[in-house]
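Model it.
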Amino acid sequence: MSRKVMFVLLSEVLFAISLSGRTVCLSAPGLVEKTARLYYYTGARVDSLLLNIDSTGRAEFVVPVENYRGMITLVVPEAGAIELVLAEPVLELKVESNSISPETVFFPESKENMFLKHIFTSQAKNMKKQAWLESGKQFYSTGEHVFELIRQEKRLVDAAMKQLRSEIDASTLYAAGYYRLSDFLNRLFDAEQTRDEEKAEKVSEEMETELNAGDMFRAGRIREMIHNYYISMFNRVNEPEKRSDYVRSVTAALNRLGPPEHEDYFAGVLHETERFGWAESQREIIERALGANPDFRTNIHSLNEILSRYRKIENEIAPAVEGLAETTEKYERTLLAFFDSECGTCVEEMKILIKRYAQLRMNSVRIVSIAADTDKQRYKNYARKLPWSDKLCDFKGFEGANFTAFGVFATPSFFLIDSEGKIAGRYFDVDEIQ
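Modeled.
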């Protein structure tokens, strides 16, 4: 193929992208020659576009996603940042200052961003006024003229808040959906902090039946925060049944979603179970999801890693541990402890394992630690604290042979291998190991 033909094809591709993508036009005379970066979101994935603001103070970003509908973040180092809605073919931004903030950015023709600004400005004003009126009531008695004026004013504020809520509920703009997500996050955070079971039950019901995963898919930081506070709520409320309730709840939510929200929500849930060390819950969620769709495949890397690991090793013969020496001692089981001495959680779990080493050895369990360290001196200093003799590290980090063979990409991770060489369990914390 000639270079000319390749250039023509490339031009056609770029033209097609500009037609189907969204355009963000920045006008900022006070930020001439500065670098601007625009972030846009696809579930957990964050992509960005980098441009220099030209000598006239303009920069034009083209987000190469057809009909993008969600949040974006515009950052100009040392000048500030702002979150915006991108759901219209062209978004015009005007910055009449040498800094970027909600107060200095204007949207001449964006219904989405004007509505979002209207929501948050009105809500903040009404809530502030409501709080002031509530505090003022305590200084007066029922029947006093000032008390009646305060009560009358409070009715007006309550009516204004109700009217705003009606506007939001009736709107089909993404801005309204983003506000609803923010409102849900606030109620979720309240339930998590107060450990209120009634509030937690209401939040769970909303997650399972109503929450708009389509809006959450491109909501940026709110997506991750919702996933994080949701599992944290179960960790703090109704403790005896917390894990089984979480599995049931997220499975119910997962079952009502279609692509691409389904796999993104799936990935978010499994990421949190990994982070919280809920290995059994993770396994049960995967079993339920794959039971309904055994041929499920995904392009999300983190989700693929977890599912590949599950399909590869669950109830199968464990891979050979590279570098492990033969022993004359007889053991019924082997516990593989994958860790990193620079990982705070790993160090705490290894402390627990050290305390239980004598008991585990008495119960015929061989301990083999496998480190992801790449600093030889740091590893040697730490390894001296480990009382068992089987201590492995090839200094290749997570690319090491044993990490790859067992599909480990997060530490700490523990594998219990039975007398037949089968993987009897996979855990993220020592307390889960029976």
